[in-house]
Amino acid sequence: MKVAVVGGGISGLAAALRIRERAPAGTAVTVYEQAPWLGGKLRTGTVAGSTVELGAEAFLVRDTTGGDSAAMSLARRVGLGDDLVHPAVQRAGLAHGGRLVPLPGGTLVGVPSDLESVKAVAEPAADLDTDEGRPLLGPDDDVAVGALVRRRLGDEVVDRLVDPMLGGVYAGRADELSLAATMPGLAAAARTEHTLTGAVKAALAAAPRPPGTPVFATVQGGLSRLVRAVAAATDARIRLGTAVRELRRVAKGWELLAGTERVHADAVVLAVPARHAARLLHTEAVVDYASVALVTLALPGARLPALSGFLVPAEEGTLMKAATFFTTKWAHLTRPDGVAIVRGSVGRYGEEPLLHRSDTDLAAHVHRELSTLVGAALPPPVGTHVRRWGGSLPQYAPGHLDRVAEARGALPPTLALAGAGYDGVGIPACVRSGEAAADQVLKGLSP
After folding, report:
1. What gap in Å lies between CA 398 and CA 188, rounded to an integer?
2. What pLDDT, in 10s, does the model give residues 48-76?
3. Averaged pLDDT, 337-356
4. At the topology level of CATH, where does 106-132+140-206 sit?
5. 2-42+225-287+397-445 topology per CATH
6. What predicted TM-score, i.e. pTM, was given to this entire model?
7. What is the dihedral of CA 175, 181, 182, 185, to 10 degrees?
């Protein structure tokens, strides 16, 4: 059998590895990637001699059941279990009134279970979250996160907590993102609980985390090591710089136009952005995307707060929406010469014109905003790097899960969709998506 995996990001590589692990001996797997490198948004580089992530930085350690996340499991399967490291500093900050304050704890993506815990930065409308004698959501309902939280806790909780949290992950807006797709645990609890604070408590209780358990992990030496290790374990034929421009069903499988060559496959996994998949399938895309820029600065002798980083509400009026203090957050990145590595994230959904500035202008703007928020003039950088990720973060509008189910339901059993455009933006979600797509096509190939 021949299986084609279109897309060499972590979703496609996870699919290829799963096929190698579960397909009959002799199954040929080919991965087609239009870029000259594998990994998609997992890409490690260097700035001023420091190893830094130019895309995704880390992954969740645990899944919703309390076990290893799919990314942790994948790293261990490819021999990187002993090279996983966790943040030295997990406490994050929040920009509030032009300065940094501690990000309130005990929330679920910014939605509090205890209203007192967030009053330092937002005043909840406590009189709105009353028991009306029925669950917050019906069995099949989906709403925008912002709509539900505004209705139950008021505007400040959304604008100062929930929106920056979702903006940091999705570069999106709480008022436009699906509750079921971005916060499935809270959506499930809202179908039984009568108050939002009760739903948050139920969702947190359903996914407990023992005290002291790290939330995130990364790979010593960078996430590109994970990409290389998974690619090697697939034993697949890797075709870099090869875009798949056409996909056609034929009598016995599929015909692909890969570069300038027409090739045959018995099954296909499309692990590419949803818009690209829609073009190949001649259908409508199920999701839109936001663009971001990541600006990394190497700052000699900079004194930074003891924080892993911070989030910025849109109402603060800054270009940045988040920042990470790499050399504070990760002990293995601390430099003996005192150079601090900081990365600012720029761009929310609908703000693409702001990203048209030059690299020099973006870096200077981020440097000024960092100085303002940390309350001290930061030294000029000795190294900078600007990485633009155009159309990289999917925006899950309400009803997203239904649209994805409908799109997948229309496909034959030997064709599967995988990736962040469908199943979640985090690395574990992408790994699960790729593995599920591999299982589907292998089932479709079974006699």
Report:
1. 15
2. 999 999 999 999 999 887 889 999 999 99
3. 95
4. protoporphyrinogen ix oxidase, domain 3 (1.10.3110)
5. FAD/NAD(P)-binding domain (3.50.50)
6. 0.96
7. 120
